[in-house]
Here is the input.
Amino acid sequence: MTINGSKLYGPKGIGLLYKREGIKLEPLIHGGGQEFGWRSGTENVPGIVGLAKALKLVQQGKEKENHRLIQLRDYFIQKILKKIPKSFLNGHPFQRLPNNINISFLDAEGESILLYLNEHGIYVSTGSACSSHKLEISHVLKALGLKHEAAHGSIRFTLGKKTTQADLDYVLKVLPGIIASLRRISPVHLKLSEIREEMKQP
Amino acid sequence: MKKTRKKPTETDVIGHRGERWLYTSIVKEHFFHPKNIFTSDKEADMYERTADGVGQVGSPKCGDVMRMYIKVDKETDTIKECRWKTFGCCSAIASTSILSEMVIGMTLDKAKKITPLDIVKALGGLPARKIHCSVLGDQALRAAIEDYKKRKR
Here is the structure.
């Protein structure tokens, strides 16, 4: 397992490798044999200290923060599915990370939704093929059984320690209009029931 | 030496691997303010019946679908009006939008010869990997012209 420092409010350019003893890995960087030979090169001491501190900080009040995020997450999911027709949650309703929300909006394309949200100062990610390097849909969504048609309209909203309910309410205010205007210029009219039915089949 | 920070005005999409895509200001204008679109579903339904030719290409599976509607001046075989619908990314929407402006007042023969490259040039360029999949408007337009000719016969 690897952990990226900047994902837990630590410094960028530092990571952590966690592996079982005895597992043999090929080092990516060869040379002076620093860090037990796993990563040669002068150690990034400030990065290491920063990552350790970041881990300590996230550990403090973890339960409380998780609880807060879960409440925000579930609030947002429930509101958005109610406000926007032909939308559905990807993944399990509660067996998921406290900060992760992934929703598909049929008949609108992810990169377009993302760019309109950007214009409103909202930053999200999409599983649409159009925004990937290889022009392929997210392999995670594919593994969840999502059809290409629905993956193209998927948006991931990630919550963090600075996310408040007011932020989510702001998204809830602008997003329905964005989806509606993209749907108005869309010649595609998928049926939610059909997409969901197809997903159930292996 | 004083370094001036680059304005991020034209940095737009960051892909899964951190690569940045650049959309020109013309692309942005057509994406955020698409031209010749329907302002309501009612208008679109009406146009569906009154257009002289309709053509559609692409599939929702692939992520891009374009539908073009034309009204033709029968005397001169010139495109009077062009409307469209597009499902797709920014470059798909922008390229169809600019195409709809390019063809108004154009003869059918000339309009049929429009290539994806002409559209890309008009937009001031597009990210290379986007051209192949998202510039399909010319095909939809040709399909609409064929549809018009078929109906005329």
Observations:
- Chain B has one domain: 21-152.
- Residues 137-152 of chain B form the longest helix (16 residues).
- Residues 1-11 of chain B have pLDDT under 50 and may be disordered.
- Strands of chain B lie at 11-14, 20-22, 53-59, 64-73, 78-87.
